[in-house]
Amino acid sequence: MHILITDSGVGGLSVVAYAERFVRTRGFTEPVRLTFANAAPANDYGYNSMPSRAAKIETFDRFLRNVTQRFAPDMIYVACNTLSVLLPDVSISAKGIIETAVNLLLSALDADPTSAALIFGTQTTIDAGTYPRLLEGRGIEASRIVSQACPGLADTISEDRQGTKARSEIRRCVAEAMAKMPRRDAPIVACLACTHYGYRKEFFAAALGDAATVINPNESAVDDLFDRTGGVHDVEVEVVTRYAIPRTTVETLTWLLIDISPRTVAALRDFVHVPDLF
Predict the structure, then answer these.
(1) Is the same domain home to 210 and 252?
(2) CA dihedral defined by 170, 127, 240, 89, rounded to 10 degrees?
């Protein structure tokens, strides 16, 4: 089985890492090949910098068509909230991480009707309003949902191995979100609606306090990728990207992922640079 996992950067590598660990430790019914394809056009120009939704859709659709033709995957999983909101408007069928996250949120919110959801994401994800729309469409009152954009946090996490800057920015984002809470005593279910944020789940948990439940959809994506286990533990990982991933980013993600999946780290270090990827 060949699964192509993509993101508008490298945050989605954590989904690859959890998927690789799943197959390696629990097995699947057949050998698995995991290809991580970076959907960002350049290191310094991504989807959050594009001038319009139309420009984002055109770029992402071109990317999906090209990687589908080049790699012929059995499944495409969009491990990116920024790109998942575009899936209804592209020509290639794929699963998106937003659906994973919303299902996790619904389970937690239904378990405690007094709880409130805090959605942390990029500006594009928050502006799209997809999370509130999907949650409200499934019965969650709007008053129980707070959205908080954290501009620049994803890049900070990728470049900040020590975590000093990331911790400070996360504290600021959490404080802004808490100020929007209609009830300060409500139990909190916080969703990390950006794949990069999962790398620093512990910082969000510390800033939110012991009463909060922090959901990292990256960890649960394997449930959407593999519906059963098996006796086959063969798994290959490759990383392809249109631009050369900066050394600082490689070193930071190596440190963050090495305990989860050394094989994913090895693929990242030996990434395949494909300038004409899309």
Answers:
(1) no
(2) 160
Q: Do 104 and 212 belong together in one domain? A: yes
Model pTM score? 0.93
pLDDT above 90: residue 117: yes
What CATH code is carried by the domain that includes residue 136?
A: 3.40.50.1860
In what helix (H) or strand (E) does residue 58 lie, and over which residues does it extend?
helix 53-71
Q: Is 278 within the bounds of a domain? A: no
pLDDT tens-place string over residues 53-112 = 999 999 999 999 999 999 999 999 999 999 999 999 999 999 999 999 999 999 999 999
The two tokens of residue 6 are 């993509």
Q: What is d(CA 229, CA 5) in angstroms, rounded to the nearest whole number?
A: 20
3-state secondary structure (DSSP) of residue 193: strand
Q: Which residue has the tokens 């619904």?
A: 106
Phi, psi of 67 (to 5 degrees): -70, -30
In a domain, 89, yes or no: yes
Is pLDDT of 44 > 90?
Answer: no
Enter the tokens of residue 73. 């995957």
- 112 with 214, same domain: the answer is yes
Backbone angles phi, psi at 118, to 5 degrees: -110, 120
- Domain span at residue 126 reads 98-218
Detail the DSSP E strand segments found in the chain: 2-7, 32-38, 75-78, 95-96, 116-121, 145-149, 188-193, 212-215, 235-241, 272-273
Whether 76 and 44 have beta carbons less than 8 Å apart is answered as no
CA distance 33 to 26: 15
In sequence order, the β-bridge partners of residue 240 are 37, 272
Verify that 102 and 209 share a domain, yes or no.
Answer: yes
82 and 131 in a common domain: no
Question: With 90 as the cut, is the pLDDT of residue 21 above it?
Answer: yes
In angstroms, rounded to a whole number, what is the distance separating the alpha carbons of residues 245 and 11?
A: 12
